Amino acid sequence: MATGLAIDPQAKRLYTTNADGELLTIDSESNTIASRKKLQDGRKAHFYLNLSLDTAGHRAFITDSKQPEVLVVDTRDGKVLEKIAAPESLAVLFNPARNEAYVSAS
Q: Which InterPro entries does the UniProt entry name for this protein (predicted)?
């Protein structure tokens, strides 16, 4: 089951998260999965809900409704760059003009 969804029209990539804790990159020209990356180990429950892209910085900000954090992930290789404390995070929006990510909580 896919949850969050974001598109990078210039890179022709669509990014989505799923209930298995993965970040999927889909090539929007060929409609094929370009990569599928498990973001973290399975020792904790994760449910990645929403994501927002920093296309210039090649980053995805991903909310995790099961953990008190937002992940910052490199969209080129799926590596987790940072974990930002954000209890009960639901939605996220990246503002490129200010280089800020805004997170809403439940």
A: Haem_d1_sf, WD40/YVTN_repeat-like_dom_sf
Structure tokens at 19: 């209930």
The average pLDDT across 91-102 equals 96
Q: Which amino acid is at 53?
A: L
Q: Which residues make Cβ contacts (< 8 Å) with residue 32, sequence separation at least 6?
A: 26
15 token code pair: 């990014």
Domain 2-105 has CATH 2.120.10.30: yes
Instruction: Find tokens 């599928």 and name the residue.
Output: 36
Identity (one letter) of the amino acid at 13? R
**Whole-prediction pTM value?**
0.93
| Domain boundary assignment for the chain | 2-105
